[in-house]
Amino acid sequence: KNLPRIETDRHALAVLIYMYLLYRHPLRGRKVHDVDPQRDEILTMGEKALFIEHPTDASNRPNLNDVKPSELPWADVEKIPYTVCGPYLKILFERAFIEGLHEPAKRPTADEWEQALIKTVDLMQPCQNPKCEQKWFVFDNTLKPVCPFCGTVYKGQLPVLNLYSARGKDNYLPDNYRIMVYSNQYLYAWHANRNVSPNEKLADIHKKPIGYFVFHQNKWVFVNQTLPKMKDLTEDKDVPINSMVEITDGKKLLLSDEDGGRLVLVQMVNG
Ligand SMILES: [Zn+2]
User: Fold this and answer.
1) The CATH number of domain 156-270, selected from 2.130.10.10, 3.60.70.12, 3.30.565.10, 2.60.200.20
2) By percentage, how much of the chain surpasses pLDDT 70?
3) What's the CA-to-centroid distance between 144 and ligand 1, angstroms?
4) Which of 106, 127, 157, 164 could disulfide-link 147, Cβ–Cβ 3.0 to 4.6 Å?
């Protein structure tokens, strides 16, 4: 008998996140292991478990003839693969349901899921197709933004922010953290400093936005609302509170000079 352990909790957490985001179960596909439904359920969830989206073994793909119309399009894994959740969650789903499905030590921790979900929110873009059923999508990090739900290609200039943070004086390292900008998007304290995290321990002073982006007179600008030491390093100018700075390709902006303070490198994507 399986007693609850941290590894089974990690499996359950991965299943919950997958179901919450994709409206389907990661292990319930077409495969039948036993004529006895109870025995089949135990095998499907346990020793014979196979990810419905396994890249090389397609034998457990959902059979679309068996699904209810209300379960579409989410039951269609070809149309909406788990990769629509973006690059950070993609890696964790693979560890949970491919590499770690029968090797519990490889399963992601709750903290890894939290970090990936936070970073994924910053890759969200509104779809430019007003008739799109999903309205928002996660940018896939490929520099060619396309809505995976309706196929609409992003048109126009789109700033992508690559975040670096200070580890000691003048030593900036990449955080593997990107932000896709959209108009009226806010930044928060956890964007300005890597030591701040938007979890249950977040202090009240860190809950207010630090500034926002807006597409203004055909230019992308950032309006600084609360950052006392913000600096435009490209122009070597301070960006005082309540002033704006234009966002252009290659621009370097320092959000905070504290330990863990972030430096932003702007990359312009032309859609
Ligand atoms: Zn769309």
Assistant:
1) 2.60.200.20
2) 99
3) 14
4) 127
Is pLDDT at 10 greater than 90 in this prediction?
Answer: yes
The answer to whether residue 90 scores a pLDDT higher than 90 is yes
Quote the tokens at residue 207. 């809950």
Q: Looking at residue 179, what is its pLDDT?
A: 94
Helix, strand or coil, per DSSP, at residue 61: coil
Region(s) of the chain under CATH 2.60.200.20:
156-270
Q: What is the pLDDT of residue 107?
A: 96
Distance (Å) from CA 84 to ligand 1 centroid: 12
**Distance from the CA of 68 to the center of ligand 1, in angstroms?**
23
ipTM attached to this prediction: 0.99
- What is the total residue count of the chain? 271
Distance 145 CA to ligand 1 centre (A): 11
CA gap 215, 133 in Å, rounded: 24
Q: How many angstroms does the Cα of residue 266 sit away from the middle of ligand 1?
A: 25
Q: Which two tokens stand for residue 55?
A: 């890249």
